[in-house]
């Protein structure tokens, strides 16, 4: 049974669907802090199987021990973490307690097993900061984190590097995500931001749905082709499939190194204006926007060199920006009852 922590979240729920489609049995552990129990029904509607579920905050070490006593866990995909960059600046202690504490509790349990089990860690392209060369390969330098959230990903990776050195047979893959967007084609699951969305695509779709009068583009004076920031927007289903491939890679003992890192993106950069154009194309409606000031902490441009994941894992993205944006819009219309 595969333990998926944070399996009711945005990327977690899509990964559970992909895992179950490939025949894996799944136990979701989620504390419902940034998700709802309704997502379980959505997962079942998307793939026909309801995963096992336990509500638990992974900071509870006795609870974590209980999971391993009650189930035969053969692999872990660890999504459970708080992820709001701005909030992490205001609540650093809570972010370190939650994101690092949860990771340590899981590792402490893995250490007690007869044989360590594969561990897939959710990391982020934020570890590269403003990279010196584009596209960004896994060999690019790690830059000092710009927020406590970003630092929890860096420190998380360091903890894993140290643990694989000390724990014989322990295999870990860290997946550094670029910008996940979109929803499952069934529209049974998607992104559910709490409050005002901070990310571009949910803000676009909520503005188009009438929740906000207009979108503000955070700066158009960057040294990019159209002056707006460039990012690598990856369809969440492509991202979900990468997790299954990564897990199966370790389960099949194909990893050459005990600790491996992969970038997960499309390899293609899109500007904020290009994403807006994509939305207008797939929705057939104009988006109202204005140009505002730069947002603190935004890097100019970031997109992935995906050759390592393509070659080593045999994974590549299959879905376009338009497909991703279109699915995000279909999901928004569904949750707004249109
Ligand atoms: N943007 C706007 N207007 C908005 C929202 C976003 O112009 O209302 C722009 C941003 O300035 C940025 C682009 O859209 O240029 C993408 O912004 P997102 O917030 O969607 O994504 P980021 O690349 O900023 O964030 C991602 C991840 C975070 C991670 C961060 C690190 O979502 O988890 O990269 O920089 F921490």
Task: Furnish the topology, listing elements before pairings.
Blueprint: E1 2-5, H1 10-21, E2 26-30, H2 38-47, E3 52-55, H3 61-70, E4 75-78, H4 85-90, H5 92-112, E5 119-124, H6 148-166, E6 172-177, E7 179-181, H7 200-208, E8 215-218, E9 230-231, E10 233-235, H8 236-251, E11 259-264, E12 270-271, H9 272-283, E13 289-292, H10 307-313, H11 321-335
Parallel strand pairs: 1-2, 1-4, 2-3, 4-5, 5-6, 6-11, 7-10, 8-13
Antiparallel strand pairs: 9-12
CATH level 1 name of the domain at 2-181 and 234-265 and 312-317: Alpha Beta
If helices are DSSP runs of H or I spanning 4 or more residues, what is the number of helices? 11
Poorly predicted segments = none
Gross morphology: globular
What is the end-to-end distance?
A: 38 Å
Radius of gyration: 19 Å
Q: How large a portion of the residues is in β-strands, by DSSP E?
A: 15-25%
Tell me how many strands there are: 13
Q: Give a quick account of the main beta sheet: strands, pairing sense, barrel closure.
A: 7 strands, parallel
Mean pLDDT: 97
Classified in CATH, the superfamily of the domain at 2-181 and 234-265 and 312-317 is: NAD(P)-binding Rossmann-like Domain
Structural class: alpha/beta
């Amino acid at each position: 049974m595969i333990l998926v922590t944070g399996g009711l979240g945005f990327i977690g729920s899509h990964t559970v669907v992909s895992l179950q489609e490939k025949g894996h049995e799944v136990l979701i552990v989620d504390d419902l802090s940034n998700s709802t129990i309704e997502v379980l029904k959505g997962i079942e509607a998307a793939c026909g199987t309801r995963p096992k579920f336990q509500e638990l905050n992974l900071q509870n070490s006795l609870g974590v021990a209980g999971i391993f006593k009650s189930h035969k866990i053969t692999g872990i995909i660890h999504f459970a973490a708080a992820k709001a960059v701005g909030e992490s600046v205001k609540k650093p202690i809570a972010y370190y307690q939650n994101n690092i504490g949860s990771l340590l509790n899981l590792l402490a349990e893995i250490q007690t097993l007869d044989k360590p089990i594969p561990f897939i860690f959710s990391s982020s392209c934020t570890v590269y900061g403003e990279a010196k060369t584009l596209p960004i390969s896994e060999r690019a330098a790690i830059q000092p984190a710009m927020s406590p959230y970003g630092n929890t990903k860096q420190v998380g990776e360091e903890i894993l590097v140290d643990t694989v050195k000390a724990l014989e047979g322990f295999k870990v893959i860290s997946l550094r995500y670029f910008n996940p967007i979109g929803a499952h084609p069934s529209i049974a699951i998607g992104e559910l931001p709490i409050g005002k969305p901070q990310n571009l695509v949910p803000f676009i779709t909520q503005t188009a749905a009438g929740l906000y009068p207009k979108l503000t583009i955070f700066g158009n004076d960057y040294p990019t082709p159209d002056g707006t920031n460039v990012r690598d927007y990856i369809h969440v289903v492509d991202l979900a499939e990468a997790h299954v491939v990564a897990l199966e890679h370790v389960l099949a003992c194909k990893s050459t190194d005990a600790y491996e890192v992969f970038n997960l993106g499309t390899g293609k950069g899109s500007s904020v204006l290009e994403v807006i154009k994509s939305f207008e194309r797939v929705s057939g409606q104009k988006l109202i926007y204005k140009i505002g000031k730069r947002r603190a902490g935004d890097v100019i441009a970031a997109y992935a060199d995906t050759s390592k994941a393509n070659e080593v894992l045999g994974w590549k993205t299959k879905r376009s920006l338009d497909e991703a944006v279109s699915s995000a819009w279909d999901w928004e219309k569904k949750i707004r009852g249109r």
